[in-house]
Design a protein that fits this description.
By secondary structure, the chain is mainly β. The protein has a single domain (about 70-170, about 220-460), classed as 6 Propeller (Neuraminidase), CATH 2.120.10. It contains 2 helices and 31 strands. A hairpin with a 5-residue loop joins strand 5 (about 105-110) and strand 6 (about 115-120). The two termini are about 25 Å apart. Pfam families: TrAA12 (PF22807).
Length: about 475
């Protein structure tokens, strides 16, 4: 079956309703054969067709300003007891775990255990002042993003390999809005909202009671406009890379509050020393290493209030010392005239991202496929969790997408592989966040409104008659 697209709608109230299909099945499987394997025979050559605002060279419209920014929310209601998202043709989806508390990020340990950060924003004493702050607080509440943070990491274990976790334990608790996770040898690192901390770990351990040891401070409150701190370890374990979002939309609070923000930081875990690895990345929310090239890639949430179709969020490789535009320009050297004073020297340095994902789709998860369960065409491609828009009419995102790669770079249009997170009344039953590849090659998806982790796998072939 083909996943639904959000149709155009009329008008814009503060909150309006959209339309997508919802499938509510206890175990949801698409019709048709497993996903096609492009290695099984030649296909006729044809031009690649990218959706507007996506791909390596998107056509960007002129910016649109308005006195009152567009606000359109899919109110969060959660899934019914038997409800599930709908997979694309050839895939099946099952609930790996339900009944979680705002699960955001996933990390798979070497023994196959799956860690889930149940987390949300920390208190922001200076982040919700004024009319705009009050409106944003209301928007986040309606979108299901205002629940208190559980501040814990939960361990899930699928002991019999059936795609459902039978064991669930509290792995770590009393954290500070944890987000990024990384294991290096026998040391487990957590990126809290304000610091990287570490704990001792032994293989198979289901709970850590040791006190955290601080590795390095991270930019935190009192504003903490973007609080999430994504994290990956280098392949040799000698460095940690932490994504830190901006403290504003487009530096309207001044650049002084943006120190060490809108950047990926490099942390030496042995000494705690920290430097800016790459900058101008408004909100780098997830990272992964490409399995073929070893390059670092990230997904970035771009700026708002320039219209429905600006600015595209994106997927990009990240180079040491590179600058990616924020706040002075976007998608390369498109100048944002709202930012004063202008900085033409920095605009001239701005690197264009590799691949546009679409405006306001809110990518929050990234995982390159390294398994063998899915057909070969998926290997080394990127699975991306699109959390979904709150400021676009019609809605965008609210799906898990796949971007094919060839020789270490994106090689085709984005494909939706899991959708129907929004029902026919425009309500969000779920919102995808972090993604990870499990030990058996399934794709795990955290759903922070549905309070679940879904597992995407090939559909079973029909039995011969």
């Amino acid at each position: 079956m083909r996943l639904p697209r959000f149709p155009p709608t009329r008008g814009c109230a503060l909150v309006a309703l959209g339309a997508v299909l919802l499938a509510a099945l206890s175990a949801c499987t698409s019709d048709g054969p497993p996903p096609s394997d492009s290695t099984q025979g030649p296909a006729p050559a044809r031009p690649l067709a990218y959706a507007p605002g996506t791909g390596p060279s998107p056509e960007l419209p002129a910016p649109e300003g308005s006195l009152i920014p567009t606000v359109r929310i899919a109110p969060a209601i959660g899934w019914p007891d038997d409800g599930m998202p709908v997979p694309a043709d050839g895939f099946s989806v099952t609930p790996f775990a339900r009944g979680l508390d705002h699960p955001r990020t996933l990390y798979v340990l070497p023994n196959g255990d799956v860690l889930v950060a149940e987390t949300n924003a920390p208190p922001k004493p200076d982040g919700a002042k004024g009319i705009k702050g009050a409106v944003m607080k209301s928007v986040m509440k309606k979108a299901g993003a205002a629940v208190p943070s559980a501040d814990r990491i939960t361990l899930l274990r699928d002991e019999d390999g059936d795609g459902v976790a039978e064991t669930r334990t509290v792995f770590l608790e009393n954290l500070m809005s944890p987000f990024g996770m990384a294991l290096v040898g026998d040391t487990f690192f957590v990126a809290n909202a304000d610091a990287v901390v570490k704990f001792p770990y032994s293989t198979g351990q289901t709970r850590i009671d040791a006190a955290p040891e601080k590795v390095a401070d991270l930019p935190g409150g009192p504003i903490n406009h973007h609080w999430t701190k994504a994290m990956v370890a280098s392949r040799d374990g000698k460095r940690l890379y932490v994504g830190v979002g901006s403290n504003s939309n487009v530096a309207e609070r001044g650049m002084a509050v943006e120190a060490m923000r809108a950047a990926i930081l490099e942390v030496d875990p042995a000494t705690g020393s920290t430097r800016v690895f790459a900058s101008g990345l408004r909100n780098p929310t997830a990272m992964d290493w490409h399995p073929r090239t070893g390059a670092l890639w990230t997904v970035v949430n771009e700026r708002d209030e320039l219209g429905n179709d600006l600015v595209p969020d994106y997927l990009t490789s990240v180079r040491d010392g590179a600058f990616y535009g924020w706040p002075w320009s976007y998608f390369g050297q498109h100048v944002d005239t709202r930012v004063e004073p202008r900085n033409p020297a920095m605009v001239a340095k701005a690197v264009a991202p590799d691949y546009a994902l679409g405006a306001h789709v809110a990518p929050l998860g990234l995982a390159f496929y390294t398994g063998s369960l899915l057909p070969a065409r998926y290997r080394e491609g990127a699975f991306i969790g699109l959390h979904g828009s709150w400021n676009r009419d019609p809605l965008s995102g609210y799906s898990v997408a796949f971007v094919p790669f060839s020789n270490g770079i994106p090689s085709g249009p984005m494909e939706d592989v899991l959708g129907s997170f929004v029902n026919e009344e425009g309500q969000a039953r779920g919102r995808p966040v972090g993604v990870a590849i499990d030990a058996r090659g399934g794709v795990l998806v955290a759903d922070d409104v549905g309070n679940a982790v879904w597992r995407l796998a090939p559909a079973a072939l029909p039995k011969p008659r």
